[in-house]
Amino acid sequence: MFTTDIGVDLGTANTLVCHKGKGIIMREPSVVAYDIRNDAVRAVGQEAKDMIGRTPGSIVAVRPLKNGVIANFDVTAAMLKRFVKIALKGSFFNRVRMVICVPSGVTEVESRAVYDAAKQAGATEVDLVEEPMAAAVGAGLPVWEATGNMVVDIGGGTSEVAVISLGDIVTAQSIRVAGDDLDEAIITYIRKKHNLLIGERTAEQIKIEIGSAKPYDDETSIEIKGRNQVDGLPKNVIISSEEVREAMADTITQIIDVIRSTLEKTPPELSADIIDRGITLTGGGALLRGLAELIAEETGMPVTVAANPIDCVVMGTAKRLEGSGGFENYVFRRGKHFR
After folding, report:
1. What is the structure's pLDDT at 335?
2. What average pLDDT does the segment 86-103 reach?
3. C-alpha distances out from residue 204 to 7, 108, 210, Å
4. pTM (2 decimals)?
């Protein structure tokens, strides 16, 4: 009665927060800028992301999560604390119940770190949910029925592949290859082929504007700016859609191989359901042009992209907060809450 309920999709690239009864209240990059002289947090979210590569020596802008898990505990806790403060703004209550998502492949130590960071941020009660489960619920799949539902959640740090039936994960695989690796592949390709050094933000912009998994109509090129490796001076280069596709090919192949591997481990009856229902893509990576079509070609399964792929995980946590539609009986596979 006197508790504020919030759900958190703690992603490597972005953190989304929903409030029970209010929907999504925050959508910010998972970036923190802090002063190394006194460890004071200077900025969080978009403001901190804008500082990447542009800070003086005394200020560091970092992503505290890597491959879906906490890489810097103190900075993650500080980021969560700032998000909780925003979520509680205007509320008379200071008790927070937090539902937070973790990759299905995390270890006990990694999931404990997420729990401890949430507690340090001020949460009085913490509930952990596996990302593929939350994504499937948020995408509106009938996960509580005795039918096979396959979801592929491609985020910033991890790609989660899971087959779900009767409200639980039957088989799942988590690979720490996702959107950030696509960006890194573009950076490496441009450095090797054009002798040009570019940053993460430029690589992400290239991926969004002209990146694709398959050739598409009206392919175009983009002019990018960076530093010439030969003389160290600023330089402009024009890069085509075909070059970006070539740069990302190996990373995309790794994700498709995990999908194939998961299908091979799926019980026959559930495989038959997946043939009928198809595979559902969620996460920011699902928005890459031609990815759904390429996965369909490689697996022989129908593939659809969820209506709001980026929001699926956080909307799944909202359902958990409401305790509706069977989610009230869900238990995190590594047991109940840590104590």
Report:
1. 47
2. 78
3. 27, 32, 10
4. 0.90
Q: Are residues 21 and 158 both part of a single domain?
A: no
**336 inside domain:** no
Going from the C-alpha of 127 to that of each of 97, 131, 170, 332, the distances in angstroms are 8, 13, 21, 8
For residues 75 and 18, membership in a common domain is answered with yes
Q: Report which of 269, 289, 283 is spatially closest to residue 311, judged by C-alpha positions.
A: 283
Last residue of one domain, picked from the residues 215, 247, 279:
247
Q: How many domains does the chain have?
A: 3
- Structural domain including 200 reads 179-247
Give pLDDT tens digits for 240-262.
999 999 999 999 999 999 999 99
CA dist 205 and 185 (Å) reads 13
Q: Give the side-chain half-sphere CA count within 13 A for 304.
A: 15
Per DSSP, the three-state class of 273 is helix
On whether the CB atoms of residues 245 and 271 are closer than 8 A, the answer is no
Q: Supply the CATH number for residue 82's domain.
A: 3.30.420.40
235 and 107 together in one domain = no
CA pseudo-torsion sign 209, 13, 7, 287: positive
pLDDT, greater one: 93 or 22? 22
Residue 335 forms part of a structural domain: no
18 shares a domain with 62: yes
51 and 190 share one domain: no
pLDDT tens digits for 5-26? 889 999 888 999 998 878 888 8
pLDDT digits (tens, 9 = 90+) for 185-212: 999 999 999 999 998 889 999 999 999 9
The sign of the CA dihedral 154, 178, 289, 273 is negative
